[in-house]
Structures are given as C-alpha cells and as structure tokens.
Amino acid sequence: MRKTLSIICAFCCSLGLFPSCSGIECPVENRVYTLYQGADTLRDTLTVFTHRADGTDTILLNQASYVVSFELPISYQAPVDTLFFRFHRAAVTDTVYVAKTNEPHFESVDCNAAFFHTLQSVTFTRHAIAGLTINNPAVNYEVSSPHFHIQFR
Amino acid sequence: MKSPRLISTYSFGSCRRALLLVCVALLCCTAASAQGFFRYQRDSIPFFRGFSVSVDMVGLVRMQLSDYGQYEGALRLNLHDQYFPIFEMGYGRANHEDDEVTGFTYKTQAPYFRIGADVNIMKRKHTGNRVFIGFRYAFTSYKVDIDCRPFADPYWKWSTHFRAHDVACSQQWAELLFGLDGRVWGPLHLGWSARYRIRVSHDDGSIGKTWYVPGFGTQDSSALDATFNVSIDI
C-alpha cells in the first residue's frame, strides 16, 4: 500500500510540474518587409505612399533623404502592390508595381498570422527612377540581402 | 537559412533543464545500484511471462482539461520480468478554437504509434514491482486545419483571411523514458513514466510550422512529458 501511495504522490507531483513548463515561442524577428538598396546615396527627398482600401492615401516612407537603403512594407494579400514614389525636389512621382505571391505562414496559435511572399516582377515609370530590379525574391522574416536594387536619375 | 531566434516565456524559468537533470540523476543512481541490469538473470522462472495491456491517464485528463490530449493504450510483453517489448497506440486530438489574442483556430486529429522496449533494472525482478528504463520510436501522419478570424492589413487596411485546410504533415520522434510500476492488487498495476522526447524528422507541410502533433504534444512546450499507466497482466 505504501508503494502505491508513493506512485500516486509521484504522479501528482509530475502533473503539477509538467504543465508549468508550457511556453510561448514566437520569432523575435517577426517583421515581413522589403529592403531597397540604392546604387548610391539618394540626393532628393523621397516619400513613398499607397492607396488604402477605403481610397485614402497612407505614407509608407516619409521624406527620406541622403539614404542608401530603405525599408517598405508589403501587403498581406494583394497580388500586386502599387507604390507611389514622390521625389520632392524634382517634383515628380513614379509609380511602382510589385507583383508577388502571398503564402500564409503559421508559427503557433500564440503568434500572430503572417504572410511570406515571392516577388515575381516589378515594373515602374521612369521619371526619377533609372532602374529597379529584383535581387532577392524571398520576402520573409529573414532579410539576408536586399530585395530590390534601385537606381535614381 | 538562419533560423529565426525565438523568445520564450516560462512560468518556471528553467524547469525543462531542471527536470531533465532530475531524470538523469535518478537514472544514474538507479543504474549504479543495479549493476548488470541488462544481463539476463538466470533462474527457474520461465522466459515468457505473459502480456499486459495498459491505458494512459495523463492524456485522458489533459483531453478533458485542455484543448488537446490523447487516448492511448499499450500492449506489452513480459519476458522474464526483465525485458518488456511494447507497442503503444493512441489517438491525439487538438481543438483550439478562436484564440483570444491571435484569433487562430487549430484542429487536428490522428492516430500515432510507438514501438520500443523497457528494461526492469530492479535487482529483485520477480516481485511484481518494476523500475524501468526504456526507449520508443514513434510515428504519426496527420492533417491540420488552421483558420484565423479576419483581420485588417496594417497599412492597406484590406480585410485579410488566413485559411489552410487539410495540410498533410508527419513526424517521427524518439523517446527515452524512466518509469515505475507497482502491483496494486492481483493483476492490476499502477505506474508512471517520465519521457524525454527528441524529434527525429518532421514534415510540417506548406504553412510553416504546426502547433500540436498527435502523440508528441505541442511544439512549443517542454520536451519532457509524463504518463500514468493503469495496466492489467494477462
């Protein structure tokens, strides 16, 4: 009988300990964004904005100047993102179309939903942008190299 | 590709490591006091001593108290009260609905199988009470359904839907265990085991990761687990 009681006590102890070990493990680097790398320093002031679902504009990059690289968000589920690059000094606006796939990404029920993307193509107007090419098509938590190489006139 | 760093919050800071150390210490102490426990003990007791069937109560209780758990049974051979080849089969289920923070619903249910053996390391092996060390090799193939309540894209403000159904996944893992088993009355035994689980291979489908794996538990919890077995000798 004493042995049985010992086993039951040990079981109760183990039940008390094990659930306490549950944890939440979400990636620290949990932003999904695109990185644009310039060929040289931007000598204008650049604002990037886009159109929201309700028709209003939202600024994605506010008056950046003398930068070599910059980050821009990427939409969760649109097949093509339309971005407007406004160059203040030159007073021109270029439109950039980024075509991409949207893959849902799950980590755990405790972590927020995310979408990973594969960049398919990029087209743009050429008022102040001289060149824009895809360098790294994989857009996810890892930014090992710039996604775009951009050149300005 | 470098794997992303993970942030973990534990209600018991380093309990995973502590429990592992306790198990290893227990194992070492017992092993030291039972020299030659792997060696076949020659005596007049016959080699084949019968079968036993058992059910695990921990998975059952967990199923009732939380949103995941398993029903599990086992068939074990008794070879000379010393070696115990075992086959364990269970049915794991998770039904985590509409997480209050992230809005995720995660559902899966599938059978799983384990095969392995226990060795009774007690010096007097025929008393009916046993101290085990053992190993298992386990496998499961399962499908998951993941939904998330619609949420707004933070910049574009479009309503976003996250849905992945019938995502085929599989996993193989190994378990090292330490357990006790005591005869309570006649053929009835009660026992528990502490298990350290090591994932050997896994296919999480196309959605990134899975959360609950039938028979293995949640991916983000401790590698340690416990079973409480009620078994009957046949």
Largest sheet of chain A: 6 strands, antiparallel
Number of domains of chain B: 1
Proportion in β-strands of chain A = over 45%
What integer is the average pLDDT of chain A? Answer: 86
Rg measurement of chain B, Å: 21 Å
- Describe the largest sheet of chain B: 8 strands, antiparallel, barrel
Short key terms for the protein model shown above:
heterodimer, A: 153 residues, mainly beta, six-stranded antiparallel sheet, four-stranded mixed sheet, 1 helix, 11 strands, 10% helix, B: 234 residues, Porin, eight-stranded antiparallel barrel, two-stranded antiparallel sheet, disordered N terminus
Verbal overview:
The complex is a heterodimer of chains A (153) and B (234). With 153 residues, chain A is mainly β. Helices cover 10% and strands 51% of the residues of chain A. Chain A is built from one helix and eleven strands; from the N terminus they run H-E-E-E-E-E-E-E-E-E-E-E. In chain A, the strands form two sheets. A six-stranded antiparallel beta sheet of chain A has the order 4-3-6-7-8-10, with no helix packed on it. In chain A, strands 5-2-11-9 form a four-stranded mixed beta sheet, with no helix packed on it. The longest helix of chain A is centred in the first third of the chain and has 16 residues, at 2-17. Chain B has 234 residues and is mostly beta strands. Chain B has a single domain, classed as Porin (Beta Barrel). Chain B has helices at residues 15-33, 57-65, and strands at residues 6-10, 48-56, 68-79, 83-96, 104-120, 130-152, 159-185, 188-203, 212-213, 217-218, 224-233. In chain B, a hairpin with a 7-residue loop joins strand 4 (83-96) and strand 5. The relative contact order of chain B is 0.18. The chains are: A mainly beta (153), B mainly beta (234). At the A-B interface, helix 1, strand 1, strand 7 and strand 8 of A face strand 1, helix 1, strand 6, strand 7 and strand 8 of B.
